[in-house]
Amino acid sequence: MRSLPAELLAAQRSTSAAPFLQVHIGDRIGGVRRLRFHRLYSGGEPPGPHAAACPGDGSLLRARVAGGQLYYQRLSSPGPGSDFAAWTALAAASQEGIALAARGADVLLCYVDGSGNLVARRSQDYGASFAPAAVVVPAPSGARRLAVAIKGPEDALLLYATDSTVLYARQSGGVWGSPAAWPHSLASASGLAAHYARDFDVVVTGIDGDGRAGVWATVYGDGYRQGPGTWSALREVQRADAGSGVSFAAPSLALADVYRLTFVEAYSGNQSYTRLQHTYTALDSDFADNLWREPFPEAIDLAEGVAVAVGSDAVWLSHPAGVWRALSGTADTDVSADVLALEATERPFGGSLRLLLRNEDGRYSGEGSLIAPGSEVSLGLGYLTSAGPLASPGPSYWIEAVERQGVGGRGLLLVEGETAWGLLARWRARRQFVWTAGQRTVFAILQALFARAGLRFTARSFSWLAANLYPAFSVQPGESGLLAVRRLLALLPDVALLGGPYVYLKEPREDESPIYAYGPQHPIREGRYRSAAPEANRVQVFGQGIFWEEFRWEEIGQTYDRLLQLHDANLTSGTQASRRALAELRRHTIASEGGEVTAPVNCGLELYDVVTVDDPALGPLGARRVRGLTLRYDATKGVYEQHLALGRP
Questions:
Q1: 46-50 — which CB contacts under 8 Å span 24+ positions?
Q2: Phi, psi of 292, rounded to the nearest 5 degrees
Q3: What is the 3-state secondary structure (H, E, C) of 38-104?
Q4: What phi and psi values does residue 380 have, to the nearest 5 degrees?
Q5: Per-residue pLDDT, 320
Q6: Which of 126, 205, 297, 643 has its Cβ near the most Cβ atoms within 10 Å?
Q7: What gap in Å lies between CA 53 and CA 60, rounded to an integer?
Q8: Is 529 helix (H, G, I), strand (E, B) or coil?
């Protein structure tokens, strides 16, 4: 249960408190800002190596190489009226690559000069002027596909790829060290991108030793999540099988609200294409967590890809002949005052929203309205209290449909939505995902699956199995994320619940203390309570050379044994098998008691909370676990109530 201030607790227990609902519509999916790119510039510049960055003064820096020349552009206040066609020739340069990075007032521009040297030019005034080129690596053989990231003044990491490996040079105190090869092995590297955020975060595209095209993430440590001067393992972001005709190139990486990564996906078979892909990390996750959303296409078909740059109020995409902008500060729409009716449900693996709004003047129907499919609906449940209107934030919903209605001369808007479970169900695996036994815990696999749907998965509490079972697990092409997650959770006693845009793991323990009381303190309007024999009261578990059995003797004494047998080759120890058997018994026990309570809204109540019930018509009924929640609000009928589905604690 969410913590509530004393004034709100007192109000929700009162029989006369007035409801207070907060309903905000935001341009987010999974809590992450939805970027809407609009093209500001279409030019005639030839394709070629290019880069972009935004220093701390809000300017936009662009660089490109064409015809043996390095061209540069600085726009102090970039926008629709800017002259994106104005370039300044800086120096002779090779077509092999270019890199640009900015942090505060510091800017680094790196390229291969006309003599074949890998050089860097530094600016300390937001890119307004540059010092002469300094040679980082004299005439490196085959240097191409550059990337650079700045930690601070005179402290940076420069990377470049050759046909056979990736090399890097570290700048410290203004002095560039000798280049060294990274410890990883790829057959070829087609692109590099880098960003600094307490470690040096690196993305590479190319072909692995088995001929598979891929996009991989790795970290060069600076002491945050990776040891200083060491490399993390290569971790897969995207992959295509050998012989598929799919390749990846031209990655670009930047940190906005989350990490944003673009790259080019190309297909060489029938109906060939070259398509920009966009992905991002799950809300509040680190780069090192490698929790990337399933890449999705942008309507930009350029073989060279785009360079991503993050400004103070916008995210920019740059190409020699194009500039796109997505504003990043769009405010939420507060519709609280226009809510006529609302029904919001939460249940295991599901939930829905129906929201009816006043819309007489069409205020929510115009072009650019956030009330559209994909937008996030944030609910706050509350009351008018002695301290003023107070509300507690509940789970988020995402709009699936909007219906305009005309009723009795009044304009209405009906909004229908779904919870994070709906987003997970709509993600389907584009290829096979495989985790071998011993590779990842169940918890880590769950994190990865939720991330592919753009959702952040974390924990309130978790069982021993969640952190200690390393199963062999696969997701087949076309399988939904919801089905895959349900198969994984079936291995655990844990449950998953929602809070805002987050999904949380929780272990519903038998010894969990009730957190709230329904009865004299919080009136019950209607109740129904049911007890039934569990579907299973005896469980046999067969693992890899392991057998375990658990019983519920009291239930067996009532109905004789109801046997459930489970076969799971992932179980390799008696501890794992016994905990799995207990988890299955627990799952069936919770479901064996039912019931429903209708009461005034408890603003902090969550799925799987344990509450006590003292019905005035039936007396004390003990503890129950919340297995479903439905909120109903109707301004015209004076309804503001909550319906609880109950189970055994």
A1: 46/320, 46/321, 47/302, 47/303, 47/304, 47/319, 47/320, 47/321, 48/95, 48/304, 48/320, 49/95, 49/96, 49/97, 49/98, 49/111, 49/304, 50/98, 50/304, 50/307, 50/318, 50/319, 50/320
A2: -105, 140
A3: EEEEECCCCCCCEEEECCCCCCEEEEEEECCEEEEEEECCCCCCCCCCCCEEEEEEEEEEEEEEEEC
A4: -125, 120
A5: 98
A6: 205
A7: 6
A8: strand
Tell whether 644 is covered by a domain. no
Residue 196: the pLDDT is: 98
Question: Token pair of 141, please?
Answer: 């053989």
In angstroms, how far is CA 540 from the centroid of its own chain?
38
Q: What angle do CA 625, 631, 633 make, to 5 degrees?
A: 155
Q: Which class for 242: exposed (0-12), middle (13-18), buried (19 or more C-beta within 10 A)?
A: exposed
Domain at 175, CATH number? 2.120.10.70
Identify which of 535, 592, 132, 504 has the alpha carbon closest to the alpha carbon of residue 283: 504
With contact defined as beta carbons under 8 Å apart, do 606 and 499 qualify? yes
Residues 141 and 217 in one domain: yes
**The length of the chain, given as a count of residues:** 649
Q: Are 495 and 591 in contact (CB under 8 A)?
A: no
Spatial distance between the Cα atoms of 238 and 321, rounded to a whole number of angstroms: 27
Bridge partner residues of 25 (DSSP): 333, 377
Both structure tokens of 164: 């056979």
Residue 515, sorted as left (phi over 0), alpha (psi -120 to 50) or beta, turns out to be alpha
Amino acid letter, 349: F
How many other C-beta atoms lie within 10 A of the C-beta of residue 211? 11
Please, which residues have CB within 8 angstroms of residue 505's CB and are 6 or more apart in sequence?
443, 446, 457, 458, 459, 460, 461, 462, 466, 494, 495, 496
pTM: predicted TM-score of the whole model, two decimal places: 0.92
Residue linked to tokens 């349900």: 486
pLDDT of residue 304: 94
Backbone angles phi, psi at 555, to 5 degrees: -70, -35
Whether 307 and 359 share a structural domain: no
CB atoms within 10 A of CB 605: 25
Q: How far apart are CA 642 and CA 516, in angstroms?
A: 14
List, in sequence order, every residue forming a beta bridge with 149; answer none if it has no partner.
Answer: 157
Does one domain contain both 171 and 268? yes
Q: Which residue bears the tokens 């996009």?
A: 215
Query: What pLDDT was estimated at residue 363?
Result: 87
Instruction: Give me the domain span that covers residue 429.
Output: 423-506
Alpha-carbon gap, residue 54 to 64, rounded angstroms: 15
pLDDT the model gives residue 433? 96
Q: Which residue has the tokens 């006693």?
A: 493
| Cβ atoms 296, 428 nearer than 8 A | no
Same domain, 175 and 316: yes
Domain limit, last residue, from 327, 358, 384: 327
Count of alpha carbons within 13 Å of 591, Cβ hemisphere only?
Answer: 13
Phi, psi of 502 (to 5 degrees): -95, 155
Q: Is 107 exposed, middle or buried (0-12, 13-18, 19+ CB in 10 A)?
A: buried
Q: In CATH, what number is assigned to the domain containing residue 484?
A: 3.55.50.10
Neighbours of 367 (CB within 10 A): 4
Intervals of the chain under pLDDT 70? none
Output the pLDDT for position 530. Answer: 83
Summarize pLDDT for 157-173 with one digit per residue, the tens: 999 999 879 999 999 99
